[in-house]
Give the backbone structure.
Amino acid sequence: MRKFKWSHLYLIFVFIILYVPIAYLVGFSFSDGDRMSHFSGFTFRHYGELFNDPRMIQIVLDTLLLALLSALIATIIGTFGAMAINSARRSVTKNTVLSLNNILMVSPDVIIGASFLIFFTALNIPLGFVSVLLSHIAFEIPIVVLMVLPKLRELPSSMLDAASDLGASDFQVLRDVTLPYIMPGIFSGFFMAFTYSLDDFAVTYFVTGNGFSTLSVEIYARARQGISLEINALSGVMFIFALVLVVGYYFIQQQQTAHKRKKGVR
């Protein structure tokens, strides 16, 4: 019989705290009522209302497009930024740039949002999709850098030297050695950036304009009028979507690990 560990009990308690509110929210999406005061019968009516709401569908598509585009651009910039930081020879320069990179990670979202608002206003950049996209790219880049940099530090310099000694150009070393090795960090950075973009409210609220909205801003606006169970249905759909992403990423990692093990056996 295994010895009981208090850490297991604590872990179960943490998961209960995290997932019970989500289960409560999603559970009421199947209620036949209009409010979360009490459950009154099982129905898919609210999901039907959700998929028949053209404004909400458009906002979902805009939010996904924004998240995918910002995460993709931030991943590209952040990956090469991490390479530049890692290749810096002077430790003072490396630490200074890395500290500047981390400022957006520790700064309050309200301060960041207000700063972007002042910046776009000063440059007469209209608030809308472009302003939100630029803001998301800006605060996602540090996330990607922090995900990619550890993999770059793990990259053995002997692999790069061996490739160069065999006549590979700098581009070939980057394409055939560096990028494949740090690809798990790049994928992690992309998914983290994508998640941060989907979740962000404070920064988006400051820089969004008339005619464009994201899910977080729209849910906040509707919540001020009283949350309908259509929002619960949307939460259920987004939870399933996030779950699929996590499971998909897990299987990608498993396949990469299995592929590396096969290479090692050979």
Residues 60-211 form a domain with the MetI-like fold fold (CATH 1.10.3720.10).
